[in-house]
Design a protein that fits this description.
By secondary structure, this protein is of the alpha+beta class. It contains seven helices and 13 strands. The protein has helices spanning 2-7, 25-31, 43-55, 138-145, 164-179, 228-238, 240-251, and strands spanning 12-14, 58-60, 64-68, 71-79, 85-90, 96-99, 103-106, 118-121, 126-129, 150-157, 182-187, 203-205, 211-214. The strands form three sheets. The chain has a six-stranded mixed β-sheet with strand order 8-9-10-11-12-13, covered by helices on one side.
């Protein structure tokens, strides 16, 4: 899939949450890897490093279960075209949910939450990174997007068949409009035989909240050019530039 994306012109490649592991708390420990580890102990990590280097692209490596000491994290690895780890994002907001009769899932049973927002630098713009449930928290998106140099928010995710149809698209479009920014999200495809059934629908949304491109629920590929000139025009038309100026005054 990475090869297909780069062949189609992709320069920043995004994978889904838990791309190397079944999405289940009972499997996180079994599939966990150290970062960076070795090719033998951390094959998923080194697969990402090698793929980025071979294809000369940035990779936002979805997420994998990360092991550090006696703790496990849900972690996205951000890799440069020379195969170096730029940063890693540990999921800040763990997915704990109990919808009676539909879904019960508690990441916090086995995972530890991260505590830092993650922004990486690329030649195109700075990119803010969150993972799945981080998407629900507007304050986290604002923390990433308040810098004028950040032009894109990326969320590897894996919403389910209870929350996905209700909130996935809504939240992605909301974060885009809230912050007048492009938002991209990559989901696992839907496998109805899995214990946890993913909603799917990877997509790219522009600062107007319009969906530029999307898969459906099955396996697919989204390749989308992003014109940051559009973002500047929208900010000017909506008065968002003035809002960012005010935010800068608050920071000072």
């Amino acid at each position: 899939m990475i090869q297909q994306a780069t062949a189609a012109g992709g320069q920043v490649i995004v994978l889904p949450e838990c791309f190397n592991s079944p999405y289940s708390t009972k499997y996180f420990g079994e599939y966990a890897e150290e970062i960076p580890g070795t090719p033998e102990s951390s094959p998923s990590v080194h697969f990402l490093l090698e793929a980025a280097r071979n294809h000369q692209v940035h990779i936002i490596g979805g997420s994998i279960p990360e092991r550090e000491g006696n703790k496990l994290y849900n972690t996205s690895i951000c890799v440069s075209p020379d195969g170096q780890i730029l940063k890693k994002h540990r999921k800040v907001h763990l997915f704990d949910i109990n919808v009676p009769g539909k879904i019960v899932f508690f990441e916090s049973d086995v995972l530890t939450a991260g505590n830092e927002p993650t922004i990486i630098e690329t030649p195109y713009c700075k990119i803010g990174v969150g993972i799945c449930y981080d998407l629900r928290f507007g304050e986290y998106a604002w923390t990433l997007a308040k810098s004028e140099d950040v032009g894109l928010l990326i969320y590897p995710g894996n919403f389910n068949m209870t929350t996905g149809p209700k909130h996935w698209e809504l939240l992605l479009r909301s974060r885009a409009v809230d912050n007048q920014i492009f938002v991209a999200a990559c989901s696992q495809a839907r496998n109805t035989s899995s214990e946890y059934v993913s909603y799917g629908y990877s997509m790219v949304v522009n600062p107007w909240g319009e969906i530029l491109a999307s898969t459906e629920f099955d396996e697919g590929l989204v390749v989308q050019d992003i014109d940051f000139g559009v973002q500047m025009k929208i900010e000017a038309a909506s008065g968002q530039e003035g809002i960012k100026d005010l935010n800068s005054m608050k920071d000072n």
